[in-house]
Each structure stands twice: as structure tokens, then as C-alpha cells.
Design a protein that fits this description.
9 helices; mainly alpha
């Protein structure tokens, strides 16, 4: 019985589990961000004309985000479990905290945007004239493009530090992650498509983990 439980736990915490979760998170978040980016004007002070023409696309994007968040939580959990006794408490705390803060602000911005869309569907003119649309639009913009992106940068720095210390990823991926993280942290104002940097980096890490796991399994089979 104990051997069976140990075997099942090992399968749940293999590098492949982290890779699959990371890929699922990245793909869903990229789809959501692209749908929002092509549907909503970049100017946070727009008049809200997209609500009637592209509201359904944004609504679809918002409905994909919870699934992306679940995959991201799974990714964090599997990575922390793989670190095991080698886990550095300082960087692991920053790793977990920044990941959870990123997810919380991502969900908060999505909930704000979803509330604006739902309210517009029932009372469109009142939402625009009362200023509620402007407030919701500005809040969503600040949560996502200022705070969530900064937490994504902190998450990348802590992840890269752990990967570098434990040699879990090539140095070029680690240093690329550092550079992209600094870009996110130091960016000021609106930069088009900047939100895609984080899921693309997680996708790169996840694909590498998946390929490395496949090569190790193939080598073990040959041996």
C-alpha cells in the first residue's frame, strides 16, 4: 500500500506535471491577453465603444482566466515540491508570495472588467454617463499593467535564482529570465503587449522541462 501511494505521489510531482501545468497556464493566458488586446483600445481613456462590438471576445477571455489560474497554482506547487529539502526559504517565500499576488491581481482585474461588461449589458447608457465605465477601465488597467506585471517580474527573478542555484535550467534561460524580469519591473507607462512576456517565459521554461524529462526517460530506457 505504501509503495503504491509513493508511486502515485511521484507521478504527480514529476517534472512533466510541472511542465504540463506551465504550458496550460501559458497557452490559456496568452489566448486571453491576445483576445483582450485586439478587442480593447490601448488608450485607457477610450469612450467604451468596444463594449458593444467586442464585448463577447473579452468575456470569453475572462472566462479562460480561472482555468489559467488553476494551472498556474499547480505549476507553483509542483515546482516547490520538486525543490524539496533543497528549497531556499527566502527565495521560496518570495517565489510563492509573488506568484499568489500576481494571480490575485490578475483575478481582481478580470473581475472588475467582467463587472463592467455585465453592467453595460443591462444599462449601457448609465454605465458610460455615470463614469462607472471610466473608473472600472482605469482600475483594470492599473491592476494589470502596473501591479500584476511587477509581481510577475519578482516571480521570474525568484524562479531564476532557484533554477540557477539548483541547476534546474540552462544558464541562458536563467539570464534571459533575469533580463525580462528587469524589463517588467522597470517599465513605466503603457507598453503594448508587455503582458505577454511573463506567460511566454513560463512557456519556455515548461517546454524545456518537458523536453529534458523526455530525454532522461529515453536515456533510462536505453540503459
Amino acid at each position: 500500500m505504501n509503495q503504491g501511494l509513493t508511486s502515485n505521489r511521484a507521478r504527480l510531482t514529476t517534472p512533466r506535471a510541472a511542465a504540463v501545468a506551465g504550458i496550460l497556464f501559458s497557452v490559456l493566458l496568452i489566448i486571453s491577453l491576445v483576445l483582450v488586446r485586439i478587442s480593447v483600445p490601448a488608450d485607457p481613456q477610450d469612450a467604451g465603444g468596444w463594449l458593444s462590438s467586442s464585448g463577447k471576445n473579452v468575456d470569453l477571455a475572462l472566462n479562460l482566466l480561472p482555468f489559467s489560474g488553476v494551472a498556474f497554482l499547480w505549476f507553483i506547487g509542483v515546482v516547490r515540491d520538486r525543490l524539496g529539502e533543497y528549497e531556499d526559504r527566502l527565495f521560496s517565500t518570495v517565489f510563492l508570495g509573488s506568484g499568489l499576488l500576481f494571480l490575485a491581481m490578475l483575478f481582481a482585474s478580470a473581475a472588475t472588467a467582467g463587472g463592467v461588461i455585465s453592467a453595460f449589458q443591462t444599462m449601457p447608457r448609465q454605465i458610460i454617463d455615470s463614469g462607472l465605465y471610466g473608473y472600472g477601465r482605469a482600475t483594470t488597467y492599473e491592476l494589470m499593467n502596473t501591479y500584476a506585471i511587477k509581481m510577475a517580474g519578482v516571480f521570474m527573478i525568484s524562479s531564476c535564482t532557484l533554477f540557477l542555484r539548483l541547476k534546474l535550467a540552462p544558464r541562458w534561460i536563467v539570464f534571459l529570465g533575469y533580463a525580462l524580469a528587469l524589463f517588467l519591473l522597470l517599465s513605466i507607462g503603457f507598453i503594448s503587449w508587455i503582458a505577454l512576456v511573463f506567460p511566454l517565459w513560463v512557456l519556455l521554461i515548461s517546454v524545456y522541462i518537458l523536453i529534458e524529462n523526455f530525454h532522461r526517460r529515453a536515456a533510462s530506457a536505453v540503459a
